[in-house]
Design the sequence.
């Protein structure tokens, strides 16, 4: 239980670093590290670890920690953009916003009705905080690729929340979600490339107006 | 008694070795052979034999700066438990003394730099003071959380908490504190994401800019107190991250020294793989250290 909490706290720290890093490549790497930690989390929760559980964890780590980051790094390399994130509200304000959200999640998670199900773990606050940070990245970053990173963080938060249901949710569902995510990122990476070819910028705020 | 003797001996002799380990690690990553591990000792010995050039515009503060810094940092070393030995001096509330001994050291370093009247040194002092404003609250939040866990305001008891085994609910805060303290360590000892100890480009220097005018034995004292600082904050960190004790002093001292060497190697790795942060980005890192240590405290009191 303590090891689980320690890992969750490291995930929260990675959230903050993802908010505060200026280079897209570094953000992708941070989220990849988060994915690897997340993949290992279910192993701490299962009563007994058999081949299916180990396989699921391995596939999770492989997709979140290796495959998706590789695709995104490729996309980043291929499109000709400035390799820095362009936040709308500045890096320091977004770190502070994220930390505030994390603090509130930590304080209020105990007041929720599901408090008894947590059993002393930080799963619920960590999930809320990660989802919140995902939203911040998703809404305050201009480039399509950094928005995809936000989507990834958001999904990580949902994944953490799913850990509460680890007894009820079959592995197949988890695998399905992972596959969806993988396809989603794949599509985004391809789209980013095409946007870049057609409009010479992946700035999504310029995509609101139609042009001939 | 022997513990106190060993404590002092370790405090005096080991620190420059850590700088050697860091440089060796960096050389390894750069594919060089690197200076020998004992190079820092030789540097200090060489500097102590040399004469001093002292600018005519300076006053006694310039000469007192490095010496007061050295004395204050060495004094802080007496408050921290090393290896098998508890701290030599311990009383309730010594964590405040610990933090402000570093404050005193910083005050005299910056004053001595300002005393020269050089614009570069003034710039370095301003930066050092600015960043210190951000590291200090982080350090205090970390101490606050440790004090809350141990129910004591003395560093000896506070740093014993991790060694007593991980009680329910303390692991997560300890992880946060450890990460926060590592950032504090890098900032206080002027290592790479914050400051580059090897830089000689005046516009980007922080610590190095402040000591430009010092030479000879005074520069030796500065180098030595820099390594002492690394050693002391490093041992606080080691007490939290890896509080392994066997109870046998003959085992505990080598374990402690080994852990510090590993820590130095880790710092070397960080320096090798990371680029230095842009000057205006450094506060972000330090603010996140504050936030980490602060959330550790929130986790404990919620």
Sequence:
């Amino acid at each position: 239980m303590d090891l689980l909490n320690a890992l969750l706290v490291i995930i929260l720290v990675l959230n903050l670093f993802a908010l505060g890093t200026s280079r897209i490549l570094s953000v992708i790497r941070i989220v990849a590290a988060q994915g690897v930690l997340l993949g290992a989390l279910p192993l701490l929760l299962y009563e007994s670890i058999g081949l299916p559980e180990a396989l699921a964890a391995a596939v999770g780590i492989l997709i979140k920690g290796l495959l998706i980051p590789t695709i995104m790094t490729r996309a980043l390399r291929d499109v000709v953009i400035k390799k820095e994130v362009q936040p709308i509200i500045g890096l320091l304000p977004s770190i502070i916003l994220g930390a505030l959200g994390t603090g509130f999640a930590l304080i209020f998670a105990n007041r929720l009705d599901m408090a008894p199900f947590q059993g002393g773990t930080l799963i619920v606050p960590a999930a809320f905080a990660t989802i919140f940070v995902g939203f911040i990245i998703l809404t305050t970053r201009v480039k399509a690729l950094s928005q995809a990173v936000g989507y990834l963080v958001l999904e990580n938060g949902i994944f953490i929340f799913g850990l509460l249901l680890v007894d009820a949710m079959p592995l197949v569902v988890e695998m399905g979600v992972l596959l969806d995510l993988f396809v989603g990122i794949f599509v985004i990476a391809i789209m980013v490339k095409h946007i870049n070819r057609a409009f010479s910028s992946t700035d999504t705020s310029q995509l609101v107006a139609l042009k001939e | 008694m022997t513990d106190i003797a060993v404590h002092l001996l370790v405090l005096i002799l080991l620190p420059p070795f850590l700088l050697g380990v860091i440089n060796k690690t960096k050389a390894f990553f750069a594919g060089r052979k690197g200076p020998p591990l004992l190079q820092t000792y030789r540097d200090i010995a060489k500097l102590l034999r040399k004469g001093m050039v002292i600018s005519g515009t300076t006053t006694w503060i310039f000469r007192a700066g490095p010496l007061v810094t050295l004395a204050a940092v060495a004094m802080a070393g007496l408050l921290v438990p090393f290896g098998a030995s508890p701290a030599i001096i311990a009383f309730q509330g010594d964590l405040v003394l610990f933090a402000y001994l570093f404050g005193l050291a910083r005050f005299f370093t910056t004053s001595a730099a300002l005393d020269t009247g050089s614009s570069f040194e003034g710039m370095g002092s301003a930066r050092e003071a600015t960043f210190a404003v951000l590291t200090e609250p982080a350090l205090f939040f970390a101490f606050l959380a440790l004090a809350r866990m141990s129910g004591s305001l003395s560093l000896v008891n506070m740093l014993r908490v991790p060694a007593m085994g991980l009680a329910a609910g303390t692991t997560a805060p300890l992880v946060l504190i450890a990460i926060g303290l590592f950032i504090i360590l890098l900032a206080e000892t002027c290592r790479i994401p914050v400051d580059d100890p090897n830089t000689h480009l005046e516009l980007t220097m922080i610590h190095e800019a402040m000591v430009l005018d010092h030479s000879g034995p005074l520069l030796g004292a500065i180098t030595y107190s820099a390594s002492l600082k690394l050693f002391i904050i490093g041992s606080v960190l080691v007490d939290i991250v890896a509080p392994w004790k066997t109870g046998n002093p003959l085992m505990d001292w080598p374990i402690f020294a080994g852990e510090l060497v590993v820590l130095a190697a880790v710092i070397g790795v960080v320096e090798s793989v990371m680029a230095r942060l842009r000057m205006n980005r450094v506060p972000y890192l330090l603010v996140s250290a504050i936030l980490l240590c602060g959330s550790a405290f929130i986790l404990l009191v919620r």
Notes: The two ends of chain B are 42 Å apart (CA to CA). Chain B has one domain: 2-301. Chain B is about 70% helix and 0% strand. Chain B touches chain A at residues 166, 168-169, 171-176, 179, 281, 283-285, 287-288, 291-292, 294-295, 298-299, 302 (CB under 8 Å).
